[in-house]
Structure formats: structure tokens, C-alpha cells
Amino acid sequence: MGKKWDGAEFFRMMAANEKAVGALYRQVATQAAFGGKFFENLAADEDRHFNIYTALLHKFEGTDTLVVDVTEEQEVYLKLLIENNWMKDADKMLAEAAKLKDKDEIYALAERAERDAVLFVEELIDLYPQLQPEEFQVVLHEEKNHLKQVLSRRMESKLTSLKL
Question: Which of residues 39 and 135 earns the better pLDDT score?
Fold first, then answer.
């Protein structure tokens, strides 16, 4: 049996995540001895994503547009995604990131952020096929590209440290 589920909280989480990741990338850009411009560019994209989610939330919050039918299993899964979102305590995440000095640890953190972003955007697309704003596709493309770039830099860093 289907249940009605209001995705406003999911949109709020997405916006908060983008804001937190943008702050993380700006912090890394200023603190790390590498990748400043790279992380600044990622941060600018995350800021734009934040604005997209915020605008969509303001446009649709309180309307039936964000209320969708989900199975009980989907509802449990979505609640778990929201409750176990490691970026929900942005201050704690930023404090922990500030302690990182190793390139691989920093890239691993960025990788996790980008993997989660891809997963969450894909969930939005699945939940709201009636919306399908072009922005979702743009954000998904950019998040996948971010992940690709982070993985590439992480691999290059590992190879360099091994002197290969």
C-alpha cells in the first residue's frame, strides 16, 4: 500500500548539503597547500546547486507537488538517507576536515561528498519525474563530473606519492 510522503525535508537536506560542501571546498582551498583553484571552482558549483534547491523548495513547499506516493520500504529508505546524512552537522564536518592534512584524506572526503550528491540527485529524479526540471539534469551532470575530477586527482596524487 502506498503512502504519501512530503519531500520538502529532502529538498532542505539537499540545499543544506550543497551549502556545507561549498563551505568545505572553500575551507580546503584556503588551508591545503594544493588544489586551491580546483576546490574554489567546485565550491562555486555547489553554491549554484544550493540556489537551485532553495528556489525549488520555495516554489513548491507547502504544495502537493512535493507530496508523492511511496511504498513503506521507500519511506524507510528515504528517512534513513536523511537521518544518516553525514553532512547534517556541517560544523562538525568542517571541524574534522580542518584537521586533515593528507591529500588522500582530503580527496577521500570530497569523493564521499560527491558520491552522496550523485545518489541524492538520482533519488530526486526518481521521486519527481513530473518535475524533471532541467536543473536536476544539470546538477546531476555536474556532480558526476565533480566525482570524476576528484577521483582523477586522488589517483594522480597516489601515483605521485608512489613516484610512478
Answer: 39
The residue assigned the cell 606519492 is 161
Helices 103-127 and 8-31: crossing angle in degrees, nearest 10, is: 160
Give the tens place of pLDDT for each residue, 129-139.
888 678 889 99
pLDDT at 148: 98
Beta-carbon contacts of residue 1 (< 8 Å; ≥ 6 apart)? 72
Exposure on the CB side of residue 57, measured as CA atoms within 13 A:
16
Please tell me the chain's helix, strand, coil percentages from 3-state DSSP, rounded to the nearest 5.
75, 5, 20
Q: Which three cell numbers stand for residue 143?
A: 556532480
Which grid coordinates are listed for 131?
518535475
CATH number for domain 3-161, candidates 1.20.1260.10, 3.90.79.10, 3.90.1170.50, 3.50.50.60: 1.20.1260.10
Residues ≥6 apart with Cβ < 8 Å to 56: 11, 131, 133, 135
What CA dihedral angle connects 154, 145, 116 and 111, to 10 degrees? 10
